[in-house]
Amino acid sequence: MALPPSLRTSITPPELELVASEQLVEIVPLVSMERTAFISGAYGPLRPPTKCKVPLWMASNLKLKKKCHIVPPVWLNTDFLQERLTEETTSPSFSEMPFRFAELAKTLLDVAPDDLQNPERIRSLLKDIREARQAKSREGLAKLDHNELLLNNLCAMEINEIRPFFVRGMDVLTKLTREPGQDAMDQT
Predict the structure, then answer these.
(1) Which residues face 71 on adjacent strands?
(2) Residue 147: what pLDDT?
(3) Distance of alpha carbon 12 from alpha carbon 19, whole angstroms
(4) Could you tell me whether strands 24-29 and 41-43 are parallel, antiparallel, or unpaired per DSSP bridges?
């Protein structure tokens, strides 16, 4: 969602992708490598064709150097995404998706489209899911209630997008629902 500069107080999408790059993904190495220690932990050993789990940043780096294939997460396929899209368009609640699905999917589609089955269809389904979820978010914000807010199954990117609107909206609602004279007590 493109926001005006005055509302860009949240983390940027590239920053969210950086945070998501710590997620572990499965790879099939094409080269052997001993266990290697990094600041975030030790990974390996890599022995082809044995699968192993490494952080997304490491998998991306190895993939760009043609030293591994990335095994897509179980949810990153057309059947699963089509089911979620159907849920999103027929149910008033958000469908259950991994918390960092948007960031992981973007990275894997950018770095390893050849490791995915039908990447263009996956990209299209993700776009449709995202648009359906954004519509629900906008609808939910329009019905904002000061007493209760329930938005289950939002992902990190979606929370980040609505945070500025939500904070301002709750601030206005708080001011509107205060008892007369309560402002004077708050200042003391």
Answers:
(1) 26
(2) 57
(3) 11
(4) unpaired
Read off the tokens for 148: 């209760």
**R_g over Cα of the chain:** 21
Bond preceding residue 49 cis, omega within 30 of 0: yes
pLDDT band at 37 (very low <50, low <70, confident <90, very high): very high
C-alpha 84/C-alpha 3 separation (Å) is: 27
Find the DSSP H helices in the chain.
Answer: 13-20, 56-64, 78-90, 101-111, 119-142, 156-177, 182-187
- The CATH class of 11-168 is alpha beta
Q: For residue range 147-161, what is the model confidence (pLDDT) as tens digits?
A: 555 667 777 888 777
Closest CA to 153 of 65, 75, 77: 75
pLDDT higher than threshold 60 for residue 142: yes
